[in-house]
Amino acid sequence: MLKFCYYSQEVYNFQNEDNLIKSFSLDYFQSGKLDELNKIITYNINHSRCIRLSDLIFYIDIDFVRIQFGSFLNLILSLLQKVEYIESEGLQHEYLDMNRIWLYFQEDGQYPGLIYQLLDYSIHFTGYSCPLDKGNRVKQKASIEIKQIISEIIDKCYNRIRINQKKNKDKNTSLYKQVIQQIQSLCKSNSSNEAIIFYIQEIIDQQKIDQQKKSKHFKLLDIDDTDIEPIRQKAVDKVNNVIKQIIEIGNKYGQVCIELLLQDIIQSMTQNLKTFKFDPYQCENDAQTKFECLKNKELELKQFVEKQIKNQILFSLQKYEKDYKFNIDEEEINQLQCQIVDSILQSPEVKHFYNTYWFQKVDQINNYIYAAITKIQQSIVQDGLESLVMLKILQLINDLI
Questions:
Q1: Within 10 A of 369 (CB to CB), how many other CB atoms are there?
Q2: Where residue 331 falls among pLDDT bands split at 50, 70, 90?
Q3: Of 16, 49, 341, 348, which has the fewest Cβ atoms less than 10 A away?
Q4: How distant, in Å, are the alpha carbons of 90, 142, 144, 333, 334 from that of 93?
């Protein structure tokens, strides 16, 4: 098994508090912390016990993690059943994507790996009632969105799933293609989730093996591939040691750097597991480069926000100057600007974009953040100005006493 021993945080702002609180009882995941006053939900995630769906699909896509056909069908089935369950209980998730779906492993020591494994996990969603401030995404029922997610999963994993080649090779390959194409067709034709669940369950029932064979051969279906490549089996300890060193180096630079390093080095390592050599000095240099890149993006963002806020403060002050006979000097304006900028950059609307490295790999990430800031900056500036004006009024009253 693979060992990803690090923690991360996911921060979201939420809109529907009742729906979010309901998710705690129906879909509890890790240690979610609720700040009702500021409408913030923070998840503290232990990556040694769970994996983000987008990460799992990436690892399958690059052939780092191996998954059997039966386990792949079971994953799709579990996703559909999860959505059916929450919606049947009146719980809505209208902002679902692959970064907000997690697999939580029921036993310590379980994890997708270089070789086939049968995993016992539960599916969990994060970000309930938390809008997606990315591109033109709009809210959509999870029962619709999950079919689009499944189609994307199939597109990425189709060529990575191996079928039993030792017997009935042509028949097994034909069945695999037929099943996958049918699931894709059902998803794209907007068939009901119940119909897709029924179809997948029917295939599993037709192809499943008995419990004794399942334990002996580590597979769910008769057509599942069971070959374990010696090179991959021997590489497990080496790979885990590399992952451990990457995390130790990345920890100095934050969770986004850890995940960027893991993605790049694992992708390189997968291309040649047998001869790959890890260079900790090069990893340190890469970490520093990535960290500097992130800091440059943050500086660019901060400079943009400072300019926007300064202009908005000066514009808004014109209104107050007509109503009140006191001056607000440059030092007070600059101090207010700093407070507002810090408040914006620490807001959940901005911190949301640092939940996962996937956002930071998008070239136009700052444009998405700018758009999110635009939605909140006016109210934050208004609150800041009102507080400053109230302070000036109190000072005037105090001077008159």
A1: 25
A2: confident
A3: 16
A4: 10, 6, 11, 42, 41
CB 58 within 8 A of CB 94: no
- SS3 of 148-208: the string is HHHHHHHHHHHHHCCECCCCCHHHHHHHHHHHHHHHHHHHHCCCCHHHHHHHHHHHHHHHE
Alpha-carbon separation of residue 309 from 158, 184, 230, 340 (angstroms): 48, 48, 60, 8
Distance in angstroms between the alpha carbons of the first and the last residue of the chain: 74
Domains of the chain in start order, with CATH, are: 7-228 (1.10.510), 229-401 (no CATH)
Question: Any bridge partners for residue 50, and if so which?
Answer: 104
- Give the total residue count for the chain: 401
Min mean pLDDT across 26-40, 75-89, 141-155, 198-212 is at: 26-40
Name, in order, each residue with C-beta under 8 angstroms of 330's C-beta and a sequence gap of 6 or more: none
Pairwise CA distance, residues 336 & 112, whole Å: 50
Q: Record the tokens describing residue 158, joined without a space.
A: 């189709």
Which residue's structure tokens are 């995993």? 119
Residue 31 has phi, psi (to 5 degrees) of: -110, 85
Residue 236 tokens read as 């497990």
Question: Which residues, listed in sequence order, are joined to residue 10 by a DSSP beta bridge?
Answer: 43
Q: Quick one: how many helices (H) and strands (E) in the chain?
A: 14, 6
